[in-house]
Prior knowledge:
Blueprint: H1 11-20, E1 24-29, E2 35-40, E3 43-45, E4 48-54, H2 59-63, E5 67-79, E6 88-103, H3 106-121, H4 130-133, E7 136-151
Antiparallel strand pairs: 1-2, 1-5, 3-4, 4-7, 5-6, 6-7
Amino acid sequence: MGNSNRIIEDINEKINMLSSMEVLRLGLVDDEGYAYIVPVNFAYDNNKLYFHTGINGKKIPLLKRGSISFQADINDGLKTADTACGHSCYFRTVYGKGRVEFLSTIEEKTYALDLLMEKYTGIKYHEFPEKVLNITEVICIHILDLEARAHLR
Protein backbone atom coordinates (compact mmCIF):
# COMPACT_ATOMS: atom_id res chain seq x y z
CA MET A 1 0.00 0.00 0.00
CA GLY A 2 1.67 3.19 -1.13
CA ASN A 3 0.74 6.71 -0.22
CA SER A 4 1.50 9.09 -3.05
CA ASN A 5 1.64 11.97 -0.56
CA ARG A 6 4.83 10.41 0.84
CA ILE A 7 6.76 10.74 -2.44
CA ILE A 8 9.53 13.33 -2.29
CA GLU A 9 9.87 15.16 -5.60
CA ASP A 10 12.37 17.90 -4.74
CA ILE A 11 15.88 16.78 -5.75
CA ASN A 12 17.56 18.90 -3.07
CA GLU A 13 15.41 17.30 -0.39
CA LYS A 14 16.29 13.84 -1.73
CA ILE A 15 20.01 14.67 -1.66
CA ASN A 16 19.81 16.13 1.85
CA MET A 17 17.99 13.02 3.07
CA LEU A 18 20.51 10.69 1.44
CA SER A 19 23.52 12.65 2.70
CA SER A 20 22.23 12.46 6.28
CA MET A 21 21.93 8.67 6.26
CA GLU A 22 24.64 6.44 7.72
CA VAL A 23 24.35 3.16 5.82
CA LEU A 24 23.78 2.48 2.13
CA ARG A 25 22.57 -0.93 1.02
CA LEU A 26 23.92 -2.09 -2.32
CA GLY A 27 21.56 -4.19 -4.39
CA LEU A 28 23.42 -6.66 -6.59
CA VAL A 29 22.33 -9.85 -8.34
CA ASP A 30 24.45 -13.00 -8.03
CA ASP A 31 25.05 -15.66 -10.71
CA GLU A 32 22.05 -17.66 -9.52
CA GLY A 33 19.71 -14.68 -9.91
CA TYR A 34 19.38 -13.95 -6.19
CA ALA A 35 19.57 -10.50 -4.70
CA TYR A 36 22.83 -9.88 -2.87
CA ILE A 37 22.34 -6.96 -0.50
CA VAL A 38 25.40 -5.45 1.15
CA PRO A 39 25.46 -2.58 3.68
CA VAL A 40 28.31 -0.05 3.35
CA ASN A 41 29.28 3.31 4.78
CA PHE A 42 29.18 5.93 2.06
CA ALA A 43 29.57 9.57 1.15
CA TYR A 44 27.62 11.66 -1.36
CA ASP A 45 29.16 14.31 -3.62
CA ASN A 46 27.95 15.87 -6.87
CA ASN A 47 25.44 13.16 -7.88
CA LYS A 48 27.88 10.39 -6.94
CA LEU A 49 28.12 7.95 -4.05
CA TYR A 50 31.46 6.69 -2.77
CA PHE A 51 32.39 3.69 -0.63
CA HIS A 52 35.38 1.45 -0.12
CA THR A 53 35.92 -2.28 0.23
CA GLY A 54 38.62 -4.93 0.08
CA ILE A 55 39.96 -6.10 -3.27
CA ASN A 56 38.52 -9.60 -2.86
CA GLY A 57 35.13 -10.91 -1.95
CA LYS A 58 31.77 -11.79 -3.44
CA LYS A 59 30.70 -8.24 -4.26
CA ILE A 60 33.72 -7.33 -6.44
CA PRO A 61 32.77 -9.38 -9.55
CA LEU A 62 29.13 -8.34 -9.10
CA LEU A 63 30.13 -4.66 -8.96
CA LYS A 64 32.25 -5.09 -12.09
CA ARG A 65 29.07 -5.81 -14.03
CA GLY A 66 28.55 -2.06 -13.87
CA SER A 67 24.91 -1.69 -12.87
CA ILE A 68 23.72 -1.28 -9.30
CA SER A 69 20.67 -0.49 -7.21
CA PHE A 70 20.95 1.10 -3.79
CA GLN A 71 18.81 2.08 -0.81
CA ALA A 72 19.20 3.92 2.50
CA ASP A 73 16.69 4.73 5.21
CA ILE A 74 16.08 6.13 8.65
CA ASN A 75 13.41 4.83 11.02
CA ASP A 76 12.05 7.87 12.87
CA GLY A 77 9.87 5.98 15.34
CA LEU A 78 6.49 4.40 15.76
CA LYS A 79 3.18 6.15 15.26
CA THR A 80 0.81 4.52 17.74
CA ALA A 81 -2.94 4.22 17.53
CA ASP A 82 -5.86 2.65 19.38
CA THR A 83 -6.19 -0.15 16.81
CA ALA A 84 -3.61 -2.55 15.43
CA CYS A 85 -4.06 -1.35 11.85
CA GLY A 86 -3.75 2.28 12.93
CA HIS A 87 -0.08 1.90 13.83
CA SER A 88 2.57 3.05 11.39
CA CYS A 89 6.24 3.96 11.27
CA TYR A 90 7.71 7.36 10.64
CA PHE A 91 10.54 6.96 8.14
CA ARG A 92 12.66 8.48 5.40
CA THR A 93 14.00 6.33 2.57
CA VAL A 94 15.98 7.03 -0.57
CA TYR A 95 16.63 4.52 -3.34
CA GLY A 96 17.87 4.48 -6.88
CA LYS A 97 20.10 2.98 -9.50
CA GLY A 98 23.46 3.84 -10.89
CA ARG A 99 26.55 2.97 -12.85
CA VAL A 100 29.61 1.60 -11.02
CA GLU A 101 33.12 2.97 -11.52
CA PHE A 102 36.22 1.55 -9.83
CA LEU A 103 38.54 4.44 -8.98
CA SER A 104 42.12 3.74 -9.93
CA THR A 105 44.38 6.72 -9.29
CA ILE A 106 45.75 7.71 -5.91
CA GLU A 107 44.18 11.14 -6.35
CA GLU A 108 40.71 9.73 -7.05
CA LYS A 109 40.91 7.28 -4.16
CA THR A 110 42.20 9.94 -1.76
CA TYR A 111 39.40 12.34 -2.75
CA ALA A 112 36.72 9.70 -2.11
CA LEU A 113 38.26 8.42 1.12
CA ASP A 114 38.53 11.99 2.39
CA LEU A 115 34.79 12.44 1.76
CA LEU A 116 34.12 9.30 3.78
CA MET A 117 36.45 10.31 6.61
CA GLU A 118 34.95 13.80 6.79
CA LYS A 119 31.41 12.43 6.91
CA TYR A 120 32.05 9.94 9.70
CA THR A 121 34.83 11.64 11.70
CA GLY A 122 34.63 15.32 10.76
CA ILE A 123 38.29 15.20 9.67
CA LYS A 124 39.91 15.18 6.22
CA TYR A 125 43.22 13.34 6.22
CA HIS A 126 44.40 14.17 2.64
CA GLU A 127 46.91 11.30 2.73
CA PHE A 128 46.53 7.56 2.93
CA PRO A 129 49.37 5.04 2.90
CA GLU A 130 49.98 3.71 -0.61
CA LYS A 131 50.20 0.19 0.86
CA VAL A 132 46.59 0.57 2.09
CA LEU A 133 45.38 2.14 -1.16
CA ASN A 134 46.80 -0.83 -3.09
CA ILE A 135 44.62 -3.28 -1.15
CA THR A 136 41.50 -1.10 -1.12
CA GLU A 137 38.90 -0.77 -3.84
CA VAL A 138 37.27 2.64 -3.88
CA ILE A 139 33.99 2.65 -5.75
CA CYS A 140 32.00 5.51 -7.25
CA ILE A 141 28.33 5.10 -8.10
CA HIS A 142 27.17 7.59 -10.72
CA ILE A 143 23.51 8.10 -9.79
CA LEU A 144 21.17 7.61 -12.75
CA ASP A 145 17.87 7.68 -10.86
CA LEU A 146 17.02 8.80 -7.33
CA GLU A 147 13.67 8.37 -5.60
CA ALA A 148 12.57 9.10 -2.06
CA ARG A 149 9.61 8.66 0.27
CA ALA A 150 8.98 9.89 3.76
CA HIS A 151 6.37 9.59 6.47
CA LEU A 152 7.21 12.49 8.74
CA ARG A 153 5.94 13.43 12.17
